[in-house]
Amino acid sequence: MNSFEELVLKRYSCRDYQARSVDRALVSQIIETAHFAPSATNAQPWRIYVIDSPENLAKVRRAYHREWFNAAPVVLMLCALKNKAWTRADGKNHANIDVAILADHLTLAAADKGLGTCWVCNFDAELLTKYFGLDSDCEPVVLLPMGYAATDEIPAKKRKSLSEIVEYL
Ligand SMILES: Cc1cc2nc3c(=O)[nH]c(=O)nc-3n(C[C@H](O)[C@H](O)[C@H](O)COP(=O)(O)O)c2cc1C
């Protein structure tokens, strides 16, 4: 891995995983790197739950029903701690932004270690709260399935052109 650009292009939403398990030591290394992510006032208003036991994987899979998701051997459940996050004077709470930055660091750190991930937000948050006994302050924001991709092929990026999204003022 040479450049940041290469790493960014290597990361994609992986929805096809090998049955192979992922060592906890590797997951821990990825989290160690990603936890240097910035956050507003450095509040770090997050909890990272590593779900890799058959019992808890079964629970998390009930909150997001996709065949491909069932194949991921590890799922990180990223939660926002709203009460610990910085709130701007106009009342905007920054917990979700902070967790999104953490999630992005995790996806890139995982790609750097040869692991696939996929952002998942379309889950049943109530179920997760119930199954894992989360406090009312601890909101599940992102599920990150993680594992070895079934293929080495990296899909081409589909993105808007810069002229559509950039404006110099
Ligand atoms: C905030 C957010 C929520 C997402 N939620 C889901 C999801 O629930 N299920 C899913 O399959 N992909 C989800 N994705 C993945 C996007 O579909 C994907 O990032 C996008 O199509 C770009 O493709 P790429 O990640 O391969 O570059 C989500 C991505 C983001 C950033």
Write the layout of secondary structure elements.
Layout: H1 4-10, H2 24-34, E1 46-51, H3 54-62, E2 74-81, H4 95-112, E3 116-117, H5 125-132, E4 138-147, H6 162-165
Antiparallel strand pairs: 1-2, 2-4, 3-4
The chain binds flavin mononucleotide.
Residues 12-13, 118-122, 157 line the site of flavin mononucleotide (FMN).
How would you summarize this macromolecular structure in one to three sentences?
The protein is α+β, with helices and mostly antiparallel strands and 169 residues long. Helix content is 34%, strand content 15%.
Q: List the helices and strands in order.
A: HHEHEHEHEH
CATH class descriptor: Alpha Beta
Dominant shape: globular
Flag low-confidence runs.
Answer: none
CATH architecture: 3-Layer(aba) Sandwich
Q: What's the N-to-C terminus distance?
A: 35 Å
Kindly name the structural category. alpha+beta
